[in-house]
Request: fold
Amino acid sequence: MKKILSLIISIFLLLQIHSHAQNAIFLSHGRIEFERKINLYAQIDDETDEAWKELMKKTTPKFKSSYFDLTFNGEKTLYKPGRENPDNNKMWQQPAEDNIIFTDLEKHRAICEKNIFDQRFLIQDSTRKIKWKITDEKRTIAGFECRRANALIMDSIYVVAFYTDEITSNGGPESFSGLPGMILGVALPHEHITWFATKVYAEDISQTALTPPAKGKKVTNALMLAEIKEALKDWGKWANRYIKAAVL
Reply:
């Protein structure tokens, strides 16, 4: 009887494991809404002279939140502005806040439309190469279990990302990609900016929905950076903040 009972328990456990594997969802196409959040008070503390900090905070919301949609189908993704947030203060517009970014992950190419002050750029270049270090830390984002990875970009910007392998595309918001699954969360602690998925939609995405942007002055990342540095050479501390925002 003990052997029979042990056999029944083993079969039951195997069926449970098989059922879980069968029911696991691995998305290859769909849409993700991201909330991009900036801590404006923290940025003011970093870049503003002491005498002006409190005055600036009186006319500034502590946080600025914007929403973006990332559509994906296989190896192609399109990141663009989503629903409006009526609470945003338009006075605190920063460079490249409404980016449209098409990424071909298989070919490692990206086409980005960025508005930087009065200039619209169309950047055609390779995708950013990021050396990720994957950790054992996990957290749940938009219903998906995600694993943490860390990296350093642009020599000095520390990046914390969370990705899920339940979404097979290895893309992410803005220019972040290159992990073994979709990036659902990004934090730049020292820049006081985060991107986190609020909702994942399992939708059919046609190729026409992934049309690359086409407007703007055609440049590479290096050419755009050179132009921005020249334009902001007399801006003091805020120049560095704006340059980083423009090239993320």
Summary: DSSP finds five helices and twelve strands in the chain. Residues 44 and 50 are 10 Å apart (CA to CA). Residues 2-23 form the longest helix (22 residues). The domain at 25-247 is CATH 2.50.20 (outer membrane lipoprotein receptor (LolB), chain A).
